[in-house]
Specification:
The protein has 337 residues and is of the alpha/beta class. The protein is built from 13 helices and twelve strands.
Length: 337
């Protein structure tokens, strides 16, 4: 998109996210790269102000809260060349018409992968030390555990099973390298050599589940992964094993998981659930073997600026006539979130 003039851009997202995605220095850089009305943040493509802006827009900068880019929205944006998404997945955002028109799509999903991987690493380390159970016992007993109670505790040689070599999964594999873990991977799109290069042993899903102390989910939410951890597969995880889910609740059978956790056989760190949030009456809120968080593993607070930086970087590349670094292709949606 090299041009003597700056391209016209429009924000389309929930405006609450804008100041965190683009704090003043970054917003200044953005304004030096595109002509954009920073006071206009579109949440409804049908309003007169949105229609006027879309008619001239060459670039749409989207984020959480952006309306779906369907045929009607695209008809109102005849000059649109690029959609730069300052968030993760574009699956629910983009309709078939946009792909048919050949609009360039870029996503900051790689920037969102880092905090999820960091959160997961932290939870793996804490789970290996049995931190959550020790906290509960310390609260009740007001006394240190005995040697016998800590005999099975520790991270040396802990067997970690990663399901999905997604962007998050791959970033997590990088973060796991300095630690003394035995890491295995299940991903149907990865071969043995690539898994080894990532620092993991490639296993079948069943072998990974039965051979891991801690299992962490990083597969996309697609039809092939729906309820991939059903009752039979959850039963393969060893007694006292830990399931970490920072991906999507739909990957796990919720009734089967609840039964396993209520029985006390398994432990879990759940940042995502199905439904989300859980009903107020769910036993998972109060179980001592469940560490439940409100979908916080992804970018929050000052971490959102990382997503904004990626978008500005991509815009600068497009203006310079360079290909985007984080392009999303239609064919990618078959296997990514």
């Amino acid at each position: 998109m090299p041009s003597a003039q700056l391209p016209r851009a429009v924000f389309a997202m929930d405006p609450v996210h804008l100041p965190l995605l683009f704090p003043p220095p970054l917003m200044t850089r953005l304004q030096q790269t595109a002509e954009i009305d920073t006071a206009l943040v579109v949440q409804d493509f049908t309003t007169p102000a949105a229609a006027s802006a879309l008619s001239r827009a060459e670039v749409l900068i989207t984020g959480w809260g952006c309306p779906r880019l369907d045929a009607e929205a695209l008809a109102a944006a005849p000059r649109l060349h690029a959609v730069l998404h300052a968030a993760g997945s574009v699956r629910s955002l983009i309709g078939e018409t946009l792909w048919d028109r050949g609009v360039t799509v870029s996503s900051a999903v790689t920037g969102n992968a880092l905090p999820v991987a960091e959160y997961t690493l932290a939870m793996i380390l804490l789970a290996g030390k049995d931190t959550f159970a020790h906290r509960e016992r310390f609260r009740d007993a007001h006394a240190y555990p005995s040697r016998a109670e800590t005999a099975a505790t520790g991270n040396l040689g802990r067997r970690i099973g990663i399901i999905g070599a997604s962007r998050v999964g791959r970033r997590l594999l990088e973060l796991l390298r300095p630690h003394d873990f035995a890491v295995s991977l299940y991903d149907p799109y990865v071969d043995t050599a690539e898994a080894a290069a990532l620092g993991a042993e490639l296993l079948s899903l069943e072998d990974l589940l039965s051979g891991s102390d801690i299992v962490s989910l990083h597969a996309p939410d697609i039809p092939e992964t729906h309820r991939m951890l059903d009752r039979e597969r959850l039963a393969l995880i060893r007694d006292g094993g830990v399931l970490i889910n920072t991906s999507r609740g739909a990957l796990v059978d919720p009734a089967a998981l609840t039964d396993e956790l209520v029985s006390g056989r398994l432990n879990a760190v759940l940042d995502v659930t199905e439904p989300e949030p859980l009903p107020a009456a769910s036993p998972l809120y109060s179980l001592p073997n469940v560490f439940l968080t409100p979908h916080i593993a992804g970018s929050l607070g000052n971490e959102l600026e990382r997503l904004g930086r990626i978008v500005v970087d991509e815009l600068e590349r497009l203006v310079a006539g360079l290909p985007p670094e984080h392009e999303v292709r239609h064919t990618d949606l078959v296997r990514v979130a």
